[in-house]
Every structure is written in C-alpha cells, then in structure tokens.
Amino acid sequence: MRKLLAFSLVLFVAFTSGAVDLMAQGAIEDRTGFQVLKQYFIQGDWRFMSFVLICLILGLAFCIERIITLNIATTNTDKLLARIDDSLKSGDVNGAMEVCKSTPGPTASILYEGLRNADKGPDAVEKAIVSYGSVQMGLLERGLVWISLFIAIAPMLGFMGTVIGMIQAFDRIEAVGDLSPSVVAGGIKVALLTTVFGLIVAIILQIFYNYIISKIDGIVNRMEDASIAVVDVMARNNVFK
User: Fold this and answer.
1) Whole domain around residue 112: which residue ranges?
2) Rounded CA gap, 108 and 230, in Å?
3) Can you tell me the distance from the alpha carbon of 46 to that of 53, in angstroms, rounded to the nearest whole number?
4) Which pLDDT value is given to residue 74?
5) Which of 50, 60, 65, 103 lies in the 20 to 30 Å Cα band around 240?
6) Is the distance from CB of 165 to CB of 187 less than 8 angstroms?
7) Could you give the CA distance from residue 105 to residue 69 in angstroms, rounded to a whole number?
8) CA–CA separation, 211 vs 204, rounded Å?
9) Cα separation, 188 vs 19, whole angstroms
10) Whole-angstrom Cα distance, residue 194 to residue 52?
11) How many domains does one find in the chain?
12) Which pTM does this prediction carry?
C-alpha cells in the first residue's frame, strides 16, 4: 500500500508540474489528448482542481490495492476441498491443516481454523469458522471506507468550484457594471469545469468500487459454501469422535 501511495504522489507531482509548464508555454495548436486535459485542468483553476485530482489518484491507489489483494485471495475451493478430503480419508488431520496453511486466501484460513478445532466436535468447528469468518470479512473490506469517502468528496469539491466560479462571475459583473458574456464567461467556465472533473472522478471510482464489492461478494459466497462443505467432509471421514 505504501508503494501505491508513493506512486500516487509521483503521479500527482508529474501531472501538476506538466500543467504548470503548459500554462507557462500557452496554448498549442497541435496538442495530444493528455495536453488538452491538462489545459482544461488549468482553466478550471489548477490550484483548486488539484484537490479533485488528489481524490482520483488516492482513490485509484486504494482500488488497485484492493483488486490485487482480492485476486490473490480468490481460491479454487473445489480443488482445496478435494485435497482436504484426500488427507482426511487417511485420517491425517494435520496434513489437511498443512494443505490449508499452504493455500493463500481467506477461505483456506477459515477452513484451517475449522480443522484446528476438529477434536472438539462439530459445534466447535462451526463456531470457529463463523468467528474467524467475521475477521476475514473485515480484512476483505479494508480500505473500502476510503474509496467511498473519495467518491463522495470529489463531486462536492466540483460543486464547491461551481459556487466559487459563480461568485467570481458576479464579482466581475459588479466591478464592470455590465452583464456581457465576455465578463462572466471566465467564472462560469471555471464553475462548469470543476463540476465536470468532480463528477468524472466520482464515476470512475464508483465503477471500481462496484467491481470490488462484487469480488468480495463472490469470495464470501465461496467461503460460506466451503465452510459448509468442510464440515460434511469431516463428518464423512469420521473426524468427529
């Protein structure tokens, strides 16, 4: 996670430095899409838009970290249960525990806790699985609150830019005493750009957030199925005495 945050900081510095350079050089006729994006970033007041950019970069950092972690946590439960069944058929509970210990992911960790309490009976196994399952759920959902925070803050910052831009527009009208389009265009453009950038950031992070939630739901469903199945496997192989 620290590496992702460090990368986010480097990306933010690079983008804002490029924006300042582009502002100093002025508009260029033949610009790439990224240069156009930076130009609009500057026109929306880069000092204020930097907060929206920070929300995007930090939000993406948390999203990438969660996606990588959840992909690692995804386990082939059928294969894992088959290996546990093979060990228990020969009465090797310790071997089944080693299979779980050597398999990454929360499902294997939960099954390990169940096997560790096999000598205490099926009720103890189920209780251990439920208790440790709650712990694993918390680990799977770690960081989601920050993603939700950035999804909420990004459009708020955009709307704040809208208000500030409109205030600037009315200040110019008051100073000039004329309601011509050229007087208010600058302030209104700042207002619209900050709103657009804030909404775009929220939409991008919301898509990642929903994907992460769906991944967590899939892992939890497999955990529950595997938890029920391992108790049946243990009972079938006469582990409970």
Assistant:
1) 1-241
2) 11
3) 9
4) 82
5) 103
6) yes
7) 9
8) 11
9) 21
10) 8
11) 1
12) 0.75
CA neighbor of 111 nearest in space, from 99, 120, 121: 99
Residue type at 130 in one-letter notation: V
Amino acid at 74: T
Q: What is the largest CA-CA distance in the chain?
A: 92
Q: What is the pLDDT of residue 24?
A: 43
Look at the chain and count its residues: 241
Q: What is the pLDDT of residues 21-53, one digit of tens each?
A: 444 444 444 456 656 666 666 666 666 788 888
**Integer CA distances (angstroms), 97 to 27, 87, 113, 118, 232, in order:** 65, 9, 9, 10, 16
- Looking at this protein, which amino acid is placed at residue 158? G
d(CA 76, CA 74): 7
Question: What are 115's two structure tokens?
Answer: 């096997």
How many other C-beta atoms are found inside a 10 Å radius of the C-beta of residue 202?
Answer: 24
153 vs 148: CA distance, rounded Å: 9
pLDDT tens digits, 123-140: 888 888 888 888 888 888
Contact 212, 142 (CB under 8 A): no
Q: Is the dihedral of CA 54, 57, 63, 68 positive or negative?
A: negative
Residue 76 CA to residue 31 CA, distance in Å, equals: 48
Span between the terminal Cα atoms of the chain, in Å:
45
Ranges under pLDDT 50 in the chain: 5, 7-30
3-state secondary structure of 104: coil
- To the nearest 10 degrees (0 to 180), the angle between helices 122-140 and 106-116 is 160
Write the DSSP assignment of 76-101 as a string of letters. -HHHHHHHHHHHHHTT-HHHHHHHHH
